[in-house]
Amino acid sequence: MLSQSILTGVRVLRTEARRNIAIVAPALNKASDPIQQLFLEKVREYKQKSAGGKLVDSNPEIERELKNELERVAKQYGSDGKTDMLKFPDFKFPDVKIDPISQGTN
Predict the structure, then answer these.
(1) 74 vs 21, more confident
(2) Are 16 and 23 in contact (CB under 8 A)?
(3) Taking phi first (over 0 means left), then psi (-120 to 50 degrees means alpha), and beta for anything else, what does residue 53 get?
(4) String of DSSP letters for 8-23
(5) Contact in structure between 35 and 41 (CB atoms under 8 Å)
(6) In angstroms, rounded to a whole number, what is the distance separating the alpha carbons of residues 103 and 32?
(7) Which among 48, 67, 64, 66 is positioned nearest to 56, based on CA atoms?
(8) Confidence of residue 64 (pLDDT cuts 50, 70, 90)
(9) Which of 75, 92, 74, 93 is nearest to 84 (CA)?
(10) Burial per residue of 24-61, b for 16 or more beta-carbon CB atoms within 10 angstroms, e otherwise
């Protein structure tokens, strides 16, 4: 009984070790594939460009289109002009007082 549970434990450990090594091994190695290396460089470059929170590689025309679309959406959904349409709305659900139901005693 003890030997069987030890064997089961060893099998589980072997499986877990194989899974963990399979997950960690690619992260430990540098990109050996030139395509993968190029992809990583582009992702890092994009991260640096997008640090300010603005559109990446935008021009005045794209900024103008964004402004027009935001104004159109604001009109469509009835914004008063003061509401930030890029912010997720805050929902408030007040607690409603419920009158208890009194049961007649018979």
Answers:
(1) 74
(2) no
(3) left
(4) HHHHHHHHHHHHHHHH
(5) no
(6) 77
(7) 48
(8) very high
(9) 74
(10) eeeeeeeeeeeeeeeeeeeeeeeeeeeeeeeeeeeeee
